[in-house]
Design brief:
The protein has 17 helices and 15 strands. The chain is α/β, with parallel strands linked by helices. The strands form four sheets. Strands 4-5-6-7-8 form a five-stranded mixed beta sheet, with no helix packed on it. It binds uracil.
Length: 465
């Protein structure tokens, strides 16, 4: 009997190395005891032959299996390491094993992976920070009780999501502490270690409204997804009675009214969330463009706008005013939008890049196009705006906007003026940027191109439900 000791319950790397060695040594799964840390496993009849085989020869398995194994290792099932070892052993003879949905082992592994995914979603969606103060200033502390060993695996998500805050996530098994630079791990905690009180508004608002969208969710699924044990941590659970009322309304044929109520609820949340998102964007340092620019120029317009315009980046005047499309390109844009029968005030207007990029030339600042890295760095903000606004139709004005929305270079000449599907499933149209019209030297060409621009805006407007 071999005893393999893993340093932590989510120790995928050690499991993988050990399992490889066991396979190389032809040790059958039923001859292995897996234990975590110094917690002794059930050593019933085992000889304490402590061994992690080193330098095990490599044998290749599919990426799908490794992804599955990475999730399964996080599951709260004491047999998970042995099950994965068994699967790995069988994979040598049955390379397509994990495609076989009829196989009981595969089904069990899939169920475990699914449970881990669900728990991950809950952690991301329902964790709430409370504000505290320590010697270095505000620190945001959240308490969460996961069902599986998912905390470390989600650390990067929270670091990326709340990079500029100092925060701690306390869980019974492990604590994570982020100071804006470094992530540290500490021992498990109890609920009493976490502060009481209302979760911090500005933090959860953005986060919550971008994840929670009753208008799109089926009520039953929603309630199933939000177990009672999380309710007490969440200010928005004030909504739950309303959601339950929605479920009852469905039974009595009043679903439309309930849906409308929920949409209204979402609208209020989205407005607060949008304000929090904009405030967060004001401090954005995701790319170097923030340094010479005057300010972040965030999107503008109602959060329930059905139509969203995405431009390239603020120009000189937008940089000073803090609003998109207020300079010369904005004037062309305004005129064309009005001629297309669209009320700009009812649309949401934003840019792919939120800071003005320019070359100083004497007293002037000359527009310089954003590069791929800058577009990529700012895509996060555009994605957040889209999550909140959820426009029916998005219009990309020019190549930078199209690249940001589609995540790849788009051929404007070929794609313009037709309904396209975005990677997030939304509907989009691509047209030219108003600055392009301003730059056309030939008045006749300008006229023709302007008319085409207006026609394409009309088409996008007509695509609204
Ligand atoms: N050009 C853009 O793309 N956006 C603006 O806000 C102004 C000019």
């Amino acid at each position: 009997m071999r005893i393999i000791t893993l340093s932590a319950p989510d120790d995928f790397d050690v499991w993988r190395e050990a399992a490889r060695g066991l396979i190389a040594d032809s040790v059958p799964p039923d001859q292995v005891v897996w234990q975590v840390g110094d917690q002794p496993a059930d050593l019933f009849g085992a000889v304490a032959d402590e061994a992690i085989p080193g330098n095990a020869p490599r044998f290749t398995v599919s990426r799908n299996f490794l992804d599955l194994a990475r999730s399964v290792v996080l599951a709260n099932d004491p047999e998970r390491f042995a099950l994965l070892h068994t699967a790995l052993d069988r994979l040598r003879r049955q390379p397509r094993l994990i495609e076989d949905q009829a196989d009981p082992l595969v089904r069990r592994l899939d169920r475990l992976a699914k449970a881990v995914r669900r728990d991950t979603h809950k952690m991301r969606a329902f964790l709430r920070f409370r504000e505290t103060e320590d010697a270095d200033g505000p620190r945001y502390v959240a308490w969460f009780e996961p069902e599986h060993h998912i905390v470390r695996a989600n650390a990067a998500f929270f670091v990326n999501r709340f990079t500029t805050m100092r925060w701690s996530i306390l869980t019974p098994e492990v604590s994570l502490h982020w100071d804006g630079q470094t992530l540290n791990e500490g021992p498990g905690a109890t609920k009493a270690d976490a502060p009481e009180g209302d979760p911090t508004e500005a933090v959860w608002k953005t986060y919550y409204a971008s994840i929670f969208n009753p208008a799109r969710m089926k009520i039953g699924a929603m309630l199933k997804e939000m177990p009672r044990k999380y309710w007490k941590n969440m200010p928005e659970t004030a909504l739950v009675p309303q959601l339950i009322a929605g479920a009852q309304a469905r039974e009595t044929g009043m679903i439309d009214t309930a849906r409308a109520d929920m949409r209204a609820g979402r609208g209020r949340n989205a407005q607060a969330a949008w304000a929090a998102l904009r405030d967060e964007a004001m401090g954005c340092t995701r790319c170097p463009l923030y340094a010479p620019a005057t300010q972040t120029v965030f999107g503008k317009g109602p959060v329930d706008a059905a139509l969203m315009f995405v431009g390239e980046q603020p120009g000189d005047q937008e940089d000073l005013a803090g609003h998109p499309f207020v300079g010369p390109a904005g004037q062309v844009f305004d005129r064309a939008v009005a001629e297309a029968g669209i009320d700009r005030a009812r649309t949401y207007v934003t840019n792919a890049v939120k800071h003005f990029k320019f070359e100083p030339r004497g007293k002037r600042r000359i527009h310089s196009s954003p590069n791929a890295g800058e577009i990529q760095a700012c895509r996060w903000w555009v994605a957040q705006e889209r999550l909140l606004i959820q426009p029916q139709v998005t219009i990309a004005l020019g190549a930078t906007a199209a690249r940001s929305l589609f995540g790849k270079v788009m051929a404007i000449g070929r794609e313009r003026g037709k309904a396209l599907t975005l990677p997030d499933g939304g509907t989009a149209f691509i047209t030219v940027h108003p600055s392009y019209l301003l730059r056309l030297p030939d008045p006749e060409a300008k006229k023709v191109e302007y008319a085409r621009f207006v026609e394409e805006l009309k088409l996008a407007g007509q695509a609204l439900r």
